[in-house]
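hey so u asked for the seq, here:
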Amino acid sequence: MIRHICMFKLKEENKEENLKEALIRVEQLRGIEQIQRFEVVVNDAEAPESNYEMSLIFDFNNMEELETYQKDERHIQFGNFIKQVRESRACIDYKF
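ran it, structure tokens below
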């Protein structure tokens, strides 16, 4: 199995609204069949502001399925949105 963790630090401008919109849009990824485990988490309100605001934690059977997911139109659309509102992104893919 491959765990794909992707974290987003959002721009300060319209941060709360953009986080809400990102959480709505990420739900469209739930229907992608290659995703075996789907979890989306947000930073706790009491956590440091320097933390990332949102993280996607998805599991895939193998790297090929992760690559298929990344080419899916729903993923591309989400990526196009998040690129506009994010300050930075961090990602890791690992076998477990």
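The helical segments are 15-26, 63-71, 73-85. Strands lie at 2-10, 37-42, 54-60, 86-95.
lmk if thats what u needed
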